Amino acid sequence: MNPNDRKSHARTKTTLKIIGLLLMAGGAALAVTGFADIFTSDGFPTKFWMLMLGLPMLAIGGMLTLTGFRQEIGRYMKNETAPIFNEMSRDIRPGVQDIASAVQQGMSRPADAQEQTQGVQSGEGSCPACGASLPQDNRFCPKCGRPLARSCPHCGETLPPDAKFCPACGKPLGTQGGAGAADGGNGRAGQ
Q1: Among 74, 65, 70, 35, which residue's Cα sits nearest to residue 52?
Q2: What is the pLDDT of residues 9-34, one digit of tens each?
Q3: Is residue 43 situated within a structural domain?
Q4: Does any domain span residue 173?
């Protein structure tokens, strides 16, 4: 913005501030007079028109004043908000760094390790013990017999590795025949 435009802009802002404040003052005076006439008159209020003129003047004056002070209001809000964002960024930085580190480690993990983990969980891929190829939905390795998933001794439902109760039938695990009954008889459940 060139210097002439800045001067013109500053004059316009000053004009908006002055006109806005004058309209607000006049509107407030008219509105107060109109309200007073409504509440103090014994019959029909005669100055009701002052209220109908004062309220719009008050609103228009407020808008003009806010427009004139917009830069100052924006600067004040920026100065109030910036320290909050700076503090927030300092507080969340360790969490964001932990998440970024975890994502980076997950992306740098070898593809065969990811495939092996997926195989144990879904019955696809290769056996983590002997490396044999596994058909889909196997519970045991066809080559070495290693259990690929724990199952409930009561209902046969496949169990999450850390389950203490069956999610299907709700019965406690490992109570009938110890841990061997819950993991296929070899004590190596989910390994």
Answers
A1: 35
A2: 899 999 999 999 999 999 999 999 99
A3: yes
A4: no
